Amino acid sequence: MFSISIYEGDILSRPCDLLILKHADGFYGVDLRIANLIGFEGIVPEGKIRVVSGRRTEAKRIAFVGVGPLVNFEYSRIRDFGRRAIEIAQKQKEPIRRICMPIHGPGYGLDEAEAFSSLVAGIVDGATQPHAEKIEAVEIVEHNPARAQRFQRILRHLVKPLSKGSRSRPDSFSEILLSAHQTLRTFGSQSELKTRLFVAMPFKDEFNDEWEIAIQEAANSLQMLCERIDKSAFTGDIATEIKRRIEEYDGLIALLNDANPNVFLEIGYAWAKEKPTLLLAKEGQELPFDVRGQRCIYYKNIADLRTKLKSELGQLQSNGVFRRT
User: Is residue 95 exposed (0-12), middle (13-18) or buried (19+ Cβ within 10 Å)?
Assistant: First the structure.
């Protein structure tokens, strides 16, 4: 019986028949870590695949999939990646029963819930194709315990019958897949239609909860997407990319803690482009004079920020502030 599950831990120690990674005109994150470990230095052009031995890992084989520039690897392409992962496994000469892969998107600033859901949607797309029944399990491996728990909750909501440990009659399996496919139809394929908010904030571990728990969860509860740019995963002219996103997105959320100069530059650009802008700050944070007169959401703790931001975003949404022309 085909299953999709989340495994919390180190992907290097997870046994599988095929580990599927991406080459985004270079390697990043866990892809880079594994490529260095096994000594893979090849270039995988967009649309191409390289399958190598999984030496020094618990995977029998590793498939590197060329996806083009990382900055373009967004939700629709993540969905396509999930589908291709199943197709690649089907085409291997030796039978593939268990596939492993990491999540894509959160490490370089995409909305983690939308990115994860798009990947799952792509996996289900592939599972509905002929002969996919030979694959027994797909495991998405996440090392961060809190994020893994969030993904598990999302997965149970999206495709509960396909989650590991579920039970269903074999003759109903095709119906389960079709039902899951219908539930997931908009992820990746229609992500660009959702309200997208750019988040300007300091890249420090001490603000991870603001980003992961408060800002993203508040936006996701209203079917909005929150994204940022992680400088460590971006190549090229980052200033140009930040300006492009601010121009194309529906609004900006700015976390003013730590008085980061880059954050204030992004606020100024958003104001110049007349983008709706929400300012956030922890109680006690001293604000510079040029934003001191602006409305700011002050919060006591993460739960308080999530509640206040959800309320504010909901009111703006109801008033049509984010409506596209």
Answer: exposed
Burial of 187 (0-12, 13-18, 19+ CB in 10 A): buried
Residue 294, pLDDT score: 87
Q: Could you tell me the pTM of the whole model?
A: 0.90
Q: Does residue 241 sit in helix, strand or coil? A: helix
Q: Are both 312 and 215 inside the same structural domain?
A: yes
Do 233 and 109 lie in a common domain? no
For residues 64 and 101, give the distance between their C-alpha atoms in angstroms, rounded to a whole number: 11
DSSP state of 163: B
Q: Is the pLDDT of residue 31 over 90?
A: yes
Domain interval for residue 95: 3-183
Output the average pLDDT for the chain.
89
Rounded distance between C-alpha atoms, residue 61 and residue 41, angstroms: 16
Name which of 28, 67, 10, 23 is nearest 232 in CA terms: 28
Please check whether residue 16 is in contact with residue 95, taking contact to mean a CB–CB distance below 8 angstroms.
no
Task: Kindly state the tokens that stand for 14.
Answer: 């997870």
Task: Identify the three-state secondary structure at position 16.
Answer: strand
Question: Model confidence over 143-177: pLDDT tens digits?
Answer: 999 999 999 999 988 886 665 544 444 445 566 66
Angle formed at CA 231 by CA 226 and CA 235, multiple of 5 degrees: 110
